[in-house]
């Protein structure tokens, strides 16, 4: 098995893990809403005051969150990364094909490159909103997160340029034959 297939399979596994975790979070946070709203005792969920704790089955891990609209941000972030890893697997799938220099390859690479620009935009908006509200500046991990995404986007757009040039050379060779 060559390296391109291994990276494709690993990225596909990350997609399935992230997608399963997204479904888990969505399901159990919805159940916690029903428990909180209708006083129905739900398994694996503990609500104390305005704080929900979800116990992850077969482990001692807990996911805790405040019962607010912050859970929507959690849904969106896990949903985004599930889609992100799907796009990553499609990115690596391009390199497992016999014909790499195709319009399909360029389309998949552009999708993955564009997805890498979304976190920096959201963090920039978050930063601007904090500045408008005069929130004290702090250097948390959410401000560091866009840096790897920007680096990945840069490399992906370099790959896109190489694929486009390769496609152009391939098309020219097809015309001369």
UniProtKB/TrEMBL annotation:
The chain crosses the membrane at residues 12-34, 65-88, 109-129, 141-160. The keyword Transmembrane applies. The keyword Cytoplasm does not apply. Keywords: Membrane, Transmembrane, Transmembrane helix. This is DUF2975 domain-containing protein. The lineage of its organism: Bacteria, Pseudomonadati, Bacteroidota, Flavobacteriia, Flavobacteriales.
């Amino acid at each position: 098995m060559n390296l391109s297939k291994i990276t494709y399979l690993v990225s596909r596994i990350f997609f399935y893990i992230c997608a399963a975790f997204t479904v888990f979070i969505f399901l159990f946070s919805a159940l916690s809403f029903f428990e909180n709203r209708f006083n129905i005792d739900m398994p694996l969920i503990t609500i104390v005051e305005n704080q929900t704790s979800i116990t992850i089955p077969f482990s001692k891990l807990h996911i805790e969150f405040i019962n607010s609209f912050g859970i929507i941000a959690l849904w969106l972030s896990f949903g985004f990364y599930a889609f992100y890893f799907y796009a990553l697997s499609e990115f690596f799938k391009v390199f497992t094909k016999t014909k790499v220099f195709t319009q399909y390859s360029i389309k998949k690479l552009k999708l993955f490159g564009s997805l890498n620009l979304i976190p920096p935009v959201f963090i920039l908006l978050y930063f601007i909103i904090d500045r408008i509200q005069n929130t004290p500046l702090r250097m948390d991990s959410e401000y560091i997160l866009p840096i790897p995404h920007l680096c990945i986007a840069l490399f992906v757009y370099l790959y896109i340029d190489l694929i486009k040039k390769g496609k152009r050379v391939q098309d020219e060779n097809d015309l001369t034959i």
